[in-house]
Automatic annotation (TrEMBL):
It comes from Castanea mollissima (Chinese chestnut). This is Thymidylate kinase. It comes from the Eukaryota. Belongs to the thymidylate kinase family. Residues 14-189 form the Thymidylate kinase-like domain.
Amino acid sequence: SGGNSESRGALVVLEGLDRSGKTSQSSRLLSYLEGLGHSAELWRFPDRSTDVGQMISSYLSNKSQLDDHMIHLLFSANRWEKRSLMETKLKTGTTLIVDRYSYSGVAFSSAKGLGVEWCKAPEVGLLSPDLILYLDIQPEKATERGGYGGERYEQLEFQKKVSQCYQVLHDASWKIVDACQPMKDIEKQLQELVLECVMTCQKGKPPANLWS
Ligand code: TMP
């Protein structure tokens, strides 16, 4: 609805630990934007619907074992296979709310001990987000929320390392939102940030590639 072909959509990324609330907040953001008449879609990575996504899914559910470098490159490939569609959507005025992106790729793989620069390399040339929202939660608090689905990375000790890796990655442009506030408050803060970003992109802010 309401896609203005003159203006581009915004690329909005949500990042955070497992159980930080990204997925619920992403769908709320989608409803919010649609309610305002904006053209918007909800995306997520990994996108498990593709062949590469199936390999990732099988790895995450411990049905297959893969070398750490190999799975890193598969996560990256899974973004590359969606890059041109992503670009088309943005160019034609659709805002994308993306649940995890390259920063998950780097944070989770570097938490295993792979070098940050090595992890970033295959992401170079993907589209750079217009807004990165980080849902900030202590690993212990996330664990308390329960509902870890038993996937490979859903363990407190590992999430602590991921949390540290996110700290290294983020810069001043990231919007850090306290994920332990009441849901409604988080929702409100995200809405304001996203709306401002959507407006800026509509006004002609040029798109960019990673890492910039
Ligand atoms: P999900 O629970 O959001 O579907 O993500 C699955 C897991 O994959 C989650 O623990 C984060 C991890 N992950 C990576 O390790 N690298 C990536 O590039 C992405 C997108 C996710």
